[in-house]
Amino acid sequence: MQNLDYKSGSHPFPHQPIFIHSVFLLIVSSFTFTIRAQTTAVPVTDFLNSIGVCTHIGQGVDNAAQSATAMTYAGIRNLRDDGRSSHIQDWITVYDQSGVRTCLLTDQNITSTVTMAKQLRAAGALLAVEGPNEPNNWPVTYQGQTSSDTTSLPIAKFQRDLYAAVKAEPALSGIPVFHSSEAGGSEPDNCGLQFLTIPAGAGTLMPDGTVFADFANTHNYVCGTQNADLGDNQAWNAADPTLNGPWDGLYVEYGHTWWGAGFNGYTNQQLLTLPRVTTETGWTTGGTGKNITEDQQGRLFLNLYLSQFKRNWKYTFIYMLRDDPNQGYWGLFHTDYTPKPSGTYLHNFTAILADTGTIATPGRLDYSIPSQPATVHDLLMQKHDGTLELAVWSEKASGTEAVTVNLNAVFATVKVYDPVAGAAPAQNLSNANSVQLSLSDHPVIIEIPNQAAAAPLTRGEKHVDNADFTVDASATNAVIRYYTGSSQGVTFFLYDMRGRLVKTLADGNQDAGYHAVFLSEHGKNGVYFCRMETEGISAARKIQIVR
Q1: I need a surface site. Which of 123, 245, 368, 399 has the fewest CB within 10 A?
Q2: Tens digits of per-residue pLDDT, 491-542?
Q3: Where are any strands of DSSP class E within 418-519?
Q4: Nearest by Cα to 457 from 24, 25, 21
């Protein structure tokens, strides 16, 4: 293994005037059926963009085209590889075929690293530039000095100058620099590599204010020591920024370094918000060490990506894309690029969550998990169309956990996905205000389609994206109508002001795409929300019933 390696221990109807009779409806205003606030969603794309994998294209081991096909299938968006100028076109090919960008490891030459980075950036294929890989295993020679078990000064000087060179290059504007992996934890002398920028008064060999990187960089292998068994909260604990556990986590690299007596870095409070990435993590399914089954690996890796993101790791690169007899059976794919369960499960997972685009204002969901076990975790995400995706996962190594997810409002449609079973919904719920789950050792996704209302209703004939309510009233009837242009049935729902479902109302008219519901017999006087659902279209209006 030349460079990348595992380190042991380490989502019309003509409008008629409203006549006031004994029963009437008054349109108060247009209304978007919003969700009461507690938890704010994060964009699904932010999570998807965090998913990475290590490849060995730069070593001539992995084929660029086959790697691109595999990563496209799995929904992987980033790769990390050894910097080799002879493989620049390979990484550009991967980007052209899959959109996957490269985290470029330095070849320990600043000039050639910057040149390679500029070529990748010009093609749109560059994610980041990374400092030396595990210099505790592969020493760094710089300015005539080689790092050793007594000094890390060559590493520190190289990382400082690499950062400065990238930041000085206009063509690389905005490209982040990742710290040298393992360098902080393994420094035998206090060079300051446990910092991104050395703070005043740190007392390190490198001067105060020295800048090394934009992101801390660890190899917090989820397997910990290779002799460990798969335990509860395996991924969650490995992602803990302050836990001194059996992995090379953030604490032992940037809090209190692990070499010898160690040196102090950031406080635990500072570690919680320190910008960070994981450029290697994983678990083998064969070869040496304590292996897990391929199915266990697939389930664990879903937990791993979620736990890392939930605990504020910007990018997570699993080691590695495919199995290799010489470098180990760490892969999401077999040696012939066919998917292992980990590749298939990740494919299902990213297919369920697939999204592009941005969210101007993230949505919120007032959900709760009563008596939530310590091994059950959750992450609320949102697609750009407003669809909410609530990931709930268990990190219980064996057995199941029954939990209830209270949504604290009634939703006309809720879907539940199990990526281990496939990419299609495992359950389709109607008028649900809670979801019962039996969790084992992997995530499920609770999907709540966008409940957004149609455009505001105005007087006169109006067709707005097939999403317009109209109102008729007489001495004996009060009617809300909706035009879809389709005979496909429409369901109407009446909610009170707290979002609780009062009535589910039958479609009273399906003639030529016009739909109606008669409200005179429904509901007490007051303000309500009336919402319809059909063929994936949702619209709502705030109404007042007065008798």
Answers
A1: 399
A2: 777 766 555 677 776 665 555 555 666 555 555 656 666 666 666 555 566 5
A3: 425-439, 443-448, 469-473, 478-483, 491-495, 501-505, 514-518
A4: 25
Residue pointed to by tokens 């736990």: 307
Q: What is the CA radius of gyration of the chain?
A: 28
Task: State whether 28 and 122 are in the same domain.
Answer: no
Q: How far apart are CA 47 and CA 302, in angstroms?
A: 12
- pLDDT tens across 97-127, in order? 999 999 999 999 999 999 999 999 999 999 9
In a domain, 244, yes or no: yes
For the ranges 70-79, 101-110, 208-217, 510-519, the lowest mean pLDDT is seen at: 510-519
Residues 28 and 109 in one domain: no
Closest by CA to 214, choosing from 255, 252, 244, 173, is: 173
Residue 24 tokens, joined:
């009437």
Residue 123 gets which letter from DSSP?
T
Q: What CA dihedral angle connects 339, 233, 279 and 133, to 10 degrees?
A: -120
Is 68 within the bounds of a domain?
yes
At 472, the amino acid letter reads: D
Instruction: Write down how long the chain is.
Output: 547
Residue 261 tokens, joined: 């007596």
Q: How far apart are CA 547 and CA 523, in angstroms?
A: 11
Q: Quote the domain boundaries for residue 478.
A: 24-34+453-546
Please check whether residues 304 and 229 belong to one and the same domain: yes
**pTM (whole model) above 0.85:** no
Is residue 14 one of the residues assigned to a domain? no
Say yes or no: 524 and 476 in one domain: yes
What does the buried/exposed string (b/e) look like for 62-91 if buried means 16 or more CB atoms within 10 Å of the residue's CB?
bbbeebbbbbbbbbbbbbbbbbbeebbebb
Other Cβ atoms closer than 10 A to 101: 22
Q: List for the chain the helix, strand, coil content (%; round to 5).
A: 20, 30, 50
For residue 465, the one-letter residue type is D
As for how many domains the chain has, the answer is 2
Nearest to 42 by CA among 236, 314, 234, 277: 314
Q: Which residue has the tokens 């997810």?
A: 405
Q: d(Cα 95, Cα 127) in Å, to the nearest integer?
A: 11
